[in-house]
Fold this sequence. Notes:
Layout: H1 2-66, E1 69-72, E2 79-82, H2 87-106, E3 110-123, E4 127-139, E5 144-155
Antiparallel strand pairs: 1-2, 3-4, 4-5
Helix pairs in contact: 1-2
Amino acid sequence: xxxxxxxxxxxxxxxxxxxxxxxxxxxxxxxxxxxxxxxxxxxxxxxxxxxxxxxxxxxxxxxxxxxxxxxxxxxxxxxxxxxxxxxxxxxxxxxxxxxxxxxxxxxxxxxxxxxxxxxxxxxxxxxxxxxxxxxxxxxxxxxxxxxxxxxxxxxxxxxxx
Length: 161
């Protein structure tokens, strides 16, 4: 009776060993496939992420620069006064770039932006325009996208009654 029991235990151990080898090989194959799927997914999603960054970076520049505009005077005697000057674009740009850098870093992306040049212009109907030529770059470790973007922000005078 003892020999039968020991034979059954050897067979049972052999079955368990073969099942564990099968499970481990499947797990290794799944991990390799998962790495491929994640890499492909990240390579395609960086494009949509970059498009979103281009739009929101300009919106952020717009938000910070418009807040620097005020109106002095009343009625027809009112005039548009810029509380800042074009030099403040550099400070605003650096602040926005740093915020975007830390946000993208949380998603495993490296973001960089370079302010190539900026200028300030007065156009028709007392509108003022800030122009900023910016190079945006995003990198996820496998793919990199770089694009030059020209942001123009119109500051319209407000009429005070």
